[in-house]
Write a structure and sequence with these properties.
The protein is about 55% helix and about 15% strand. The chain has ten helices and nine strands. Strands 2, 3, 5 and 6 form a four-stranded antiparallel β-sheet that branches. Strand 7 and strand 8 form a beta hairpin. The chain is rod-shaped and about 190 Å long. About 15% of the residues have low confidence.
């Protein structure tokens, strides 16, 4: 019984030993990984991805080494620029282990080594640039750092694939100064654009006013030309009508007296000078009605003489004298015959109108004579001597 128990325990022990032996002998390495093997403390080989066999208790397997591209960020490396400004630069480094043996035995900590060499190279590169060039030359700095780091890390079994500057932080005072400078530049551009807009607006306004004044002047010119031409035509028509109808001096004197009151109709006229020709015109016009004081009939006249009715008809717009001294027409279109006095039962309607206008004209002439006499008297009072 005891012999059976001992045999069972021995069998279990053998199985355990064999299992441990197999576990120590077979090593499985994942893809894109590598492990170095030492035999009696000396490098023996590098295990490749897959199943690998070693001698238990003789070979020692070191930790896994990642062969994939790795990313490491280095923060806040202080760097002094050429213009003596301290800036903090954050960098990002992309690298890959190409030789597991060199990465394991040539350098103790290749991550720390890359960080230190990156900071050193940043001080060397940035030290030859001022702040403005540093802020605008990131691609140049990245290229220089990648070349230097790739050469330095090659013997460590590393390959630096890319170096990027993540941030450049100038001092707070420099940032404030840069913001003020940027604000001043923007205000300058805004002021320039505003001034250009105002100038353009004034130029366009001036051009518009110029064109408006030119067009207004041209319109006034054309208006004055047309007005002058109209007045010339009107004067010519009147002149031709007067000469064609052979108006005598009495009709012209009466028209002259009708024009005189219009001289005093303007606003603000407080003084009116009676021309010396008024007396002559009154005398001429009085001669036209002189037959009434000589005992001749008021409505009759000798051939060729303009009677009072004809004069009134002319003044009232009934017509101009004809070639034979008689009136050219009447208000009704019937011929006006100067000869019958008012009140005759045979008078036509036109003759009655002419007679009424003649009576009104005589009253107006009498009133004008009184006013002229009063003005002459006033003039004699204030005349010197």
């Amino acid at each position: 019984m005891e012999a059976g128990i001992i045999a069972a325990v021995a069998a279990v022990i053998v199985v355990i030993v064999m299992f441990v032996f197999v576990a120590k002998t077979v090593r499985i390495v994942p893809q894109a990984r590598a492990r170095n093997v030492e035999r009696f403390g000396r490098y023996r080989k590098t295990l490749q991805p897959g199943m690998n066999f070693i001698i238990p208790f003789v070979d020692r397997v070191k930790p896994l080494i990642d062969l994939r591209e790795q990313v490491v960020a280095f923060k806040g490396a202080p760097v002094i620029t050429q213009d003596n400004l301290v800036v903090l630069i954050d960098t990002v480094l992309f690298f890959q282990v190409t030789d597991p043996r060199a990465a394991d035995y040539e350098i103790v900590d290749y991550i720390q080594a890359i960080e230190q060499i990156t900071a050193t190279m940043l001080r060397s590169v940035i030290g030859n640039m001022d702040l403005e060039e540093t802020l605008t030359s990131r691609d140049k700095i990245n290229t220089m750092l990648r070349g230097v780091l790739d050469d330095a890390s090659g013997k460590w079994g590393l390959r630096v694939t890319r170096v990027e500057i993540k941030a450049i932080d100038p001092p707070k005072s420099v940032i404030d100064a840069m913001e003020k400078q940027m604000r001043a530049e923007r205000e300058k551009r805004a002021a320039i654009l505003t001034a250009e807009g105002v100038r353009q607006s004034k130029v366009l306004t001036a051009e518009g006013e110029k064109q408006s004044q030119i067009l207004t002047a041209e319109g006034d010119k054309q208006s004055q030309i047309l007005r002058a031409e109209g007045q010339a035509q009107a004067i010519g028509t009147v002149f031709q009508a007067v000469h064609r109808n052979d108006a005598d001096a009495k009709v012209l004197a009466y028209q002259y007296l009708q024009t005189l009151p219009q001289l005093a109709q303007a606003e603000g006229n407080t003084f009116w000078v009676i021309p010396s020709e008024v007396t002559s015109a009154l005398r001429t016009l009085s001669g036209a009605f002189g037959g009434e004081g000589d005992g001749q009939p008021a409505g009759r006249g000798h051939p060729g003489q303009v009677t009072g009715g004809a004069t009134a008809a002319l003044a009232g717009g009934t017509g101009l004298p004809g070639a034979d001294g008689g009136p050219a027409g009447s208000l009704t279109g019937d011929p006006v015959v100067a000869g019958d006095p008012p009140g005759n039962g045979d008078l036509t309607r036109a003759e009655q109108v002419v007679a009424e206008q003649a009576a009104r004209t005589r009253e107006e002439l009498a009133h004008v004579e009184q006013e002229v006499a009063a003005v002459q008297a006033e003039a004699e009072r204030f005349s010197p001597g």
